[in-house]
């Protein structure tokens, strides 16, 4: 009798263990999904830097080094400086060749160029203007320069007639440091003067078309010591474009050379805000 009772208890225990094993082995369809907290962050946008008149792509060297240190892919474009529409087409072709989103940055006259190049281009996530023009449709760089007093650029220009017609403009080398780069070390400013690239006079008088700053988020850095584009004009354009604005007291038109830290910071602000 005792043997039968003991055998019954063993059988019951075995059955319970088997049932438990089956219960554990079969997952419930209602179990909650696991959340991957290690999912990769969004890829950083490519920063495309566009120089303005009387400069070249090397004027962005300080920003290129700093941006690359922060993990951003960077292209310092060669702006042809021949005309707003043709220059914009050149920059747009470069932007379209980039894999992924772009933050487009323009200095000085390149503000006109990026405003047109980025129009209706979904790849461009943000526009950053550095001591630059933010023209509306029908406005030219020359129009905006003269809208407020303060520019002394006209008196420093040297004209060079081109064989096929038209005129190139340079800043006279002996006047370049004071006019363009007053807060840059003199030896470096003289080098910039000797290597400057001319802008076609027609580019500065060419009217802009519909601007991308009406479509995209905008950041604008304004140097208060600018002698090319009056700071009052820059402030007026920034306000019109509802730009996130940074003012750099006393900085010259060549603020991208003299203050690459400030310029890099505003570029990163734009890139970060548009990739959240």
TrEMBL record:
GO MF annotation list: hydrolase activity
Residue ranges occupied by any AB hydrolase-1 domain in the UniProt entry: 47-265
A Pfam family per the record: Abhydrolase_6
Top-level lineage group: Bacteria
Keyword vocabulary terms for this entry: Hydrolase, Signal
Signal peptide residues on this chain, from the entry's feature table: 1-30
SUPFAM superfamilies assigned: alpha/beta-Hydrolases
Annotated protein name in UniProt: Alpha/beta hydrolase
Lineage: Bacteria, Bacillati, Actinomycetota, Actinomycetes, Pseudonocardiales
């Amino acid at each position: 009798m005792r043997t039968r009772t003991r055998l019954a208890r063993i059988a019951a225990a075995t059955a319970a263990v088997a049932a438990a094993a089956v219960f554990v082995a079969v997952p419930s369809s209602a179990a909650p999904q696991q959340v991957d907290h290690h999912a990769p962050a969004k890829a950083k946008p490519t920063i495309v830097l566009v120089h303005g008149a009387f400069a070249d792509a090397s004027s962005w060297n300080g920003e290129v080094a700093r941006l690359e240190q922060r993990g951003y892919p960077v292209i310092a474009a060669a702006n042809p400086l021949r005309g707003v529409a043709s220059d914009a087409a050149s920059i747009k072709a470069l932007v379209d060749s980039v894999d992924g989103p772009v933050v487009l940055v323009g200095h000085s006259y390149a503000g006109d160029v990026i405003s047109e190049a980025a129009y209706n281009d979904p790849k461009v996530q943000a526009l950053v203007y550095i001591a630059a023009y933010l023209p509306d449709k029908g406005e030219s760089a020359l129009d905006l320069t003269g809208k407020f007093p303060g520019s002394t650029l006209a008196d420093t220009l040297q004209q060079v007639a081109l064989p096929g017609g038209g005129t190139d403009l340079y800043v006279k080398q002996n006047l370049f440091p004071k006019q363009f780069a007053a807060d840059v070390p003199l030896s470096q400013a003289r080098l910039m003067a000797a290597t400057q690239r001319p802008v076609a006079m027609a580019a500065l008088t060419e009217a802009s078309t519909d601007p991308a700053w009406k479509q995209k988020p905008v950041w604008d850095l304004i140097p208060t010591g600018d002698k090319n584009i009056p700071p009052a004009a820059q402030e007026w354009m920034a306000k019109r474009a509802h730009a996130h604005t940074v003012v750099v007291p006393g900085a010259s038109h060549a603020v991208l050379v003299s203050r690459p830290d400030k310029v890099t910071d505003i570029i990163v602000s734009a890139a970060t805000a548009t990739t959240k």
